C-alpha cells in the first residue's frame, strides 16, 4: 500500500512541473527580449520627439544600413561567445578585407573575383585564430588581441594611407541603396538571410546544441564525442569570413577602400552580443535576442546623431551600454538569490560551494 | 569547546519536523532525527530519498520550508554555510566542490586560513597543517599542487581534510567513501571513530551498507522524503535496512554466465609516462573484465587512453584484430567504445542541460544526420533510457542539476548505453547509487555482456568487482600485478596484489599475465 502511495505521489506533480521547467528558461529569455523591445519603442518615441525625420523610410534605411557591418559580425560572435571564447579581431579583418579589395581592384582584377579572394583571406585569418585557440590551446582573448593588431598592420602594409574609390555603380548601389520602392537596404537583406541561417543552426540543429554544450562544460562535451577543437576552429573561420564580408559591405557603402576602415567596431559588436542577453561566460544566449540588440543599437545611434550628439559622446554611450549589459544579468541574479533566501530558497546559492563563480 | 563533558546519551543535534519542497518535488516531509554526542549515526535511503537535502539544510545551503534545528538543546538557525561553520557544523558534501585553480592547501583552508602576525595569511603554516591532515589520513597529496586534474578520490580526500580542519561539534559526511578504495576507507574510519570518541556527533550517509554496519552506532532510514525508522545498528540486519529503504526485499543480482567470444579490444605493452607501464590485456565479446587496484594505481588512466582522451606513450591498441589510433573521444566513439567517466560533474554531464539533452549529446550526429533536431524523437528516446534505469525525475526535460546524486549517475550511464557501444568502459558506475539501482546496473551490465559487448569494469568496491567480473586485472603502481580468473577471485588475493605483495606470495606475476593475454587470442 505504501508503495502505491509513493507511486501516486511521484506521478501527480509530474505534469505541471515539467511544464514549468520547460517554460522557465523561455520566460526568463522572453523577459529580456521584451525589455529590448520596450527600449526600441522608447527610442523610437524619443527619435520622433527629436526629429520629424526619424520615422521616415529614408531614415529607416539610414539607421539600419549604418549598423549592418556590425550586425552581421555579431552573429558569429554570438556563437563564439556562447562557446566561451571571444573574437576581438573582427574589426581588423574588416579593414584587411577592405584594403585587399581596394588593392586588387586598383590592380585591375575584376571585382567579383576580388570579393571571392577577400572572403578566402577572411577564412584564412579566421583559421589562424581558430588553430591558435583550439589546437594550441591559447586563450582567445590574447590570440585575437594579437591578430587585431596583425590584420590591421597587414591592411596598412597593403594599402598604406591610400583610399581606393571609383568602384562600379552596381557595387556602390548594393552598399548604399534600398530595394527599389521600399525602405529596405540591400545590406539588410544580407543580414536577414544570415540571421535566419544562424537562428536555424543555433536553435534547431545539433551543431547549435554542441556549441552550447562546449560553452557550459567543455570537458563533458569532449567526453561526449563533441569535436571541440574542430567546432571552435570552424566558428573562428566563419567569423573571419563574415568579417571579410562586412569589409566588402562597408567598402561599398562608403564607396571607399581604406586600411583604417572599421576601426573601433569590435567594441560595438561585443556590445550588441552582450546586450542581446548572451552570457560573457559562455553557455547562454539566443540569436533573436542579438537581432533585437542590433536594432536597439541602431535606433540609439541614430537618435543620438539626429540630436546632434558628438561622436565622442556616442562612444561614451556605447561603452556605458556595454558595462550595463555585462553587469545587469549579474545584479539580476544576485537580486534573485537574495529574494529566494528571504522566501526560503529555490536555487542553491552560489556561495563558496560553486567553483565557477566566486574565484577572485 | 563545550564546558561540560558530553554525556553519550544527550542529543547534540536534533531536527524536528523538517520539510523542504523544490518546485513539484517534496524532497523532505516532516522528518525528525537526533544525533548524540559521541555517536556515529547512519543515514540511509534510496537515491532521491532526501538525504543530501537534509545535509544541505544543516550546512546552510538550503533553507527549510518548515521545522526546527537544535544544537545541544538550543534552537539555531543556519541561514548560510558561514553560519554552519560558526556553529561548529563541518560537512563533507556528496559532490566535491573545489576551486580547481587553487592549491590543495588553499582549498582546505579556504574559509579560515591560518594567520600569522598582523593577520596576514601564513602560507607556510597552511602547508604544514595541510600536510599534517593528509598524514593523519595516510594519503600522499602534495599540498602545494593545484587541484585541477586530481582524481575523484583525491578530491574527496581534500573535502574530508577540509571538514576535519574545523574543530567541529557535528561532523556530517555525505557519501565520503564513494570513490575511495578499501585502504583509504579504513583510514577514514579510524579518524571518524577517533572524532566520535572526542564527543563529536557524526552523521554518516552511505549506500555501502557494510560500512554502515562496520562504523555506525544507530541508523535512520529515509524513504521518499519521509522518516521510516531509527534504530540501534545492533538491532538491524542488512535485509532489514534494505527492506526499510526500498519497501521490499532486494536480492543481489547473480551475474549471468555469458558465452565468451572473440577478442574485441586488445592492448599490447601500452604505456603512458607517469601513469602506467607495459599493460597488456584483451577484452572479449561477452566478457566483463574487472580492473581493481588502489586509488592511483592507474585504472582511470588506462581507461582515458582507451577512450582517446590521453595519448599513449608506447604500445598498441587493436580493435577487432586491427590496430587503431584513437586520437579523440569522437574517434573512440565511432570505433564503438563508450566510457562512463568517474567524475560525473566534470566529465560526465552538462548539469544545466536537461536529462534528454544529456542523454542524446553523444549520438546527435547519428540520430539526426540532416542536422535538424527532432525534439519529440529525442525525448522519446531519452525517456526510454531514463525509464530503463529508473531515473527518479519529474520528466526528461528536467535539468540534471535538480536530480539527486545517484540519479545523475544513472543519467550518465543512460547516456552511454544510448550510444550502443561494442566495448563499454565503466569507471565507478555505481558510485553513489542506491542498492536497488546498483542491482539494476549490475543486471544491465550483465545483460549487455550477454548480448556480446566487451565490458571493462572499474570499481573501488571490491565485492562488486568480484561479483561482476569474469576476470580481474589487479593494478599496482601502474603495472598489472595479477590476473585473477573468476573461479579463483577472493578479496584477500586481490587486496594482496593491489598492495604489491603478490609476487612474494602467489605464483601469478607479470610473465603469466602476458601468457594470459596471449591465450586470449587463440
Ligand atoms: N536543487 C534542486 N532542485 C530541484 N529538485 C531538487 C534539488 N535538489 C534535490 N532535488 C530533488 O529532491 C529529491 C531529494 O534529493 P536528495 O539529493 O536529497 O537525495 P539523496 O537522498 O541525497 O539521493 P542520492 O542517494 O542519490 O544522493 C530528489 O527527488 C531531487 O530530484
Ligand atoms: Mg545525496
Explain the overall architecture.
The complex is a heterodimer of chains A (360) and B (522). Chain A is mainly α. Chain A has a single domain (25-341), classed as Orthogonal Bundle (ABC transporter involved in vitamin B12 uptake, BtuC), CATH 1.10.3470. Chain A has 16 helices and 2 strands. A two-stranded antiparallel ribbon of chain A has the order 1-2. In chain A, helix 5 (90-106) packs antiparallel against helix 6 and helix 6 (111-135) packs antiparallel against helix 12. The longest helix of chain A is centred in the N-terminal third of the chain and has 37 residues, at 14-50. Chain B has 522 residues and is an alpha/beta fold. Chain B has 3 domains: 11-246, Rossmann fold, CATH 3.40.50; 258-336 and 421-522, Rossmann fold, CATH 3.40.50.300; 351-420, no CATH class. Chain B is built from 20 helices and 20 strands. Chain B has a 6-stranded mixed sheet with strand order 6-7-8-3-9-10, sandwiched between helices. The longest helix of chain B is centred in the middle third of the chain and has 16 residues, at 182-197. Chain B starts with 10 loop residues before the first strand and ends with a helix. Mean pLDDT of chain B is 87; it is low at 1-7 and 502-522. Chains A and B meet through helix 1, helix 2, helix 10 and helix 11 of A and helix 10, helix 11 and helix 13 of B. The complex binds adenosine-5'-triphosphate (ATP) and magnesium ion (MG). Adenosine-5'-triphosphate binds next to strand 2, helix 1 and helix 15 of chain B. Magnesium ion (MG) binds at residues 51-52, 94, 174, 404-405 of chain B.
Amino acid at each position: 500500500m505504501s508503495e502505491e502511495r509513493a507511486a501516486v505521489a511521484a506521478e501527480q506533480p509530474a505534469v505541471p512541473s515539467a511544464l514549468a521547467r520547460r517554460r522557465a528558461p523561455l520566460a526568463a529569455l522572453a523577459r529580456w527580449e521584451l525589455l529590448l523591445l520596450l527600449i526600441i519603442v522608447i527610442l523610437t518615441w524619443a527619435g520622433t520627439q527629436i526629429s520629424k525625420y526619424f520615422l521616415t523610410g529614408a531614415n529607416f534605411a539610414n539607421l539600419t544600413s549604418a549598423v549592418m557591418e556590425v550586425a552581421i559580425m555579431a552573429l558569429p560572435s554570438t556563437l563564439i561567445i556562447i562557446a566561451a571564447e571571444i573574437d576581438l579581431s573582427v574589426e581588423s579583418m574588416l579593414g584587411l578585407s577592405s584594403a585587399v579589395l581596394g588593392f586588387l581592384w586598383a590592380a585591375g582584377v575584376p571585382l567579383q573575383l576580388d570579393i571571392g579572394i577577400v572572403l578566402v583571406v577572411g577564412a584564412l585569418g579566421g583559421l589562424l585564430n581558430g588553430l591558435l585557440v583550439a589546437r594550441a590551446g591559447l586563450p582567445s582573448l590574447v590570440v585575437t588581441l594579437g591578430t587585431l593588431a596583425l590584420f590591421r598592420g597587414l591592411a596598412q602594409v597593403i594599402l598604406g594611407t591610400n583610399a581606393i574609390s571609383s568602384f562600379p555603380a552596381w557595387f556602390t548601389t548594393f552598399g548604399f541603396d534600398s530595394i527599389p520602392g521600399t525602405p529596405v537596404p540591400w545590406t539588410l537583406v544580407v543580414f536577414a538571410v544570415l540571421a535566419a541561417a544562424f537562428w536555424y543552426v543555433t536553435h534547431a540543429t545539433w551543431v547549435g546544441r554542441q556549441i552550447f554544450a562546449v560553452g557550459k562544460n567543455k570537458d563533458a562535451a569532449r567526453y561526449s564525442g563533441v569535436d571541440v577543437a574542430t567546432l571552435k576552429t570552424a566558428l573562428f573561420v566563419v567569423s573571419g569570413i563574415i568579417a571579410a564580408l562586412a569589409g566588402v559591405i562597408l567598402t561599398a557603402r562608403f564607396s571607399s577602400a581604406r586600411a583604417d576602415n572599421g576601426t573601433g567596431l569590435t567594441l560595438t559588436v561585443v556590445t550588441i552580443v552582450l546586450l542581446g542577453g548572451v552570457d560573457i561566460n559562455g553557455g547562454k544566449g539566443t540569436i533573436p535576442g542579438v537581432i533585437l540588440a542590433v536594432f536597439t543599437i541602431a535606433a540609439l545611434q541614430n537618435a543620438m546623431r539626429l540630436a546632434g550628439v558628438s561622436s565622442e559622446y556616442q562612444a561614451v554611450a556605447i561603452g556605458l551600454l556595454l558595462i550595463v549589459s555585462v553587469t545587469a544579468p549579474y545584479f539580476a541574479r544576485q537580486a534573485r538569490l537574495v529574494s529566494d533566501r528571504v522566501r526560503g530558497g529555490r536555487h542553491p546559492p552560489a556561495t563558496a560551494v560553486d567553483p565557477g563563480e566566486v574565484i577572485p | 569547546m563545550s564546558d561540560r563533558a558530553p554525556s553519550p546519551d544527550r542529543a547534540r543535534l536534533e531536527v524536528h519536523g523538517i520539510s523542504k519542497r523544490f518546485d513539484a518535488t517534496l524532497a523532505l516531509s516532516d522528518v525528525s532525527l537526533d544525533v548524540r554526542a559521541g555517536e556515529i549515526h547512519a543515514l540511509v535511503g534510496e537515491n532521491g530519498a532526501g538525504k543530501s537535502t537534509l545535509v544541505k539544510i544543516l550546512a546552510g545551503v538550503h533553507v527549510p520550508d518548515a521545522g526546527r534545528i537544535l544544537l545541544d538543546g538550543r534552537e539555531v538557525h543556519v541561514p548560510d554555510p558561514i553560519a554552519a561553520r560558526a556553529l561548529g557544523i563541518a560537512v563533507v558534501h556528496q559532490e566535491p566542490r573545489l576551486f580547481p585553480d587553487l592549491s590543495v592547501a588553499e582549498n582546505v583552508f579556504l574559509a579560515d586560513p591560518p594567520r600569522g602576525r598582523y593577520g596576514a595569511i601564513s602560507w607556510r603554516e597552511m602547508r604544514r597543517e595541510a600536510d599534517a591532515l593528509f598524514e593523519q589520513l595516510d594519503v600522499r597529496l602534495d599540498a602545494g599542487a593545484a587541484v585541477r586534474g586530481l582524481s575523484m578520490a583525491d578530491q574527496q580526500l581534500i573535502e574530508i581534510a577540509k571538514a576535519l580542519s574545523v574543530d567541529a561539534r557535528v561532523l556530517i559526511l555525505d557519501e565520503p567513501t564513494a570513490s575511495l578504495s578499501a585502504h583509504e576507507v579504513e583510514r577514514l574510519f579510524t579518524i571518524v571513530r577517533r572524532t566520535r570518541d572526542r564527543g563529536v556527533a557524526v552523521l554518516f550517509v552511505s549506500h555501502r551498507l557494510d560500512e554502515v554496519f562496520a562504523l555506525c552506532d544507530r541508523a535512520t532510514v529515509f524513504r521518499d522524503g519521509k522518516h521510516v525508522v531509527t534504530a540501534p545498528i545492533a538491532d538491524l540486519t542488512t535485509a532489514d535496512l534494505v527492506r526499510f529503504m526500498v519497501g521490499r526485499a532486494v536480492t543481489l543480482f547473480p551475474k549471468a554466465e555469458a558465452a565468451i567470444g572473440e577478442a574485441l579490444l586488445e592492448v599490447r605493452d601500452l604505456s603512458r609516462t607517469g601513469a602506467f607501464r607495459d599493460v597488456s590485456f584483451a577484452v572479449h565479446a561477452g566478457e566483463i573484465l574487472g580492473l581493481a587496484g588502489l586509488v592511483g594505481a592507474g585504472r582511470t588512466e588506462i581507461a582515458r587512453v582507451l577512450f582517446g582522451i590521453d595519448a599513449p606513450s608506447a604500445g598498441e591498441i587493436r580493435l577487432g584484430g586491427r590496430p587503431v589510433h584513437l586520437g579523440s573521444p569522437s574517434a573512440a566513439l565511432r570505433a564503438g567504445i563508450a566510457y562512463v567517466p568517474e567524475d560525473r560533474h566534470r566529465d560526465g554531464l552538462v548539469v544545466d542541460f536537461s536529462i534528454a539533452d544529456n542523454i542524446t549529446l553523444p549520438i546527435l550526429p547519428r540520430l539526426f544526420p540532416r542536422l535538424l533536431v527532432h525534439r519529440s524523437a529525442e525525448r522519446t528516446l531519452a525517456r526510454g533510457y531514463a525509464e530503463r534505469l529508473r531515473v527518479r525525475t519529474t520528466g526528461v526535460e528536467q535539468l540534471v542539476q535538480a536530480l539527486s546524486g545517484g540519479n545523475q549517475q544513472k543519467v550518465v550511464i543512460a547516456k552511454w548505453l544510448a550510444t550502443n557501444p561494442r566495448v563499454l568502459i565503466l569507471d565507478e558506475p555505481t558510485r553513489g547509487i542506491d542498492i536497488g539501482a546498483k542491482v539494476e546496473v549490475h543486471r544491465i551490465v550483465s545483460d549487455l555482456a550477454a548480448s556480446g559487448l566487451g565490458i571493462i569494469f572499474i570499481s573501488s568496491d571490491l565485492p562488486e568487482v568480484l561479483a561482476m567480473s569474469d576476470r580481474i586485472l589487479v593494478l599496482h603502481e601502474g603495472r598489472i600485478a595479477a590476473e585473477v580468473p573468476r573461479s579463483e577471485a577472493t578479496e584477500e588475493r586481490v587486496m594482496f596484489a593491489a598492495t604489491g605483495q603478490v609476487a612474494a606470495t602467489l605464483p601469478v606475476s607479470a610473465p603469466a599475465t602476458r601468457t594470459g593475454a596471449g591465450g586470449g587470442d587463440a
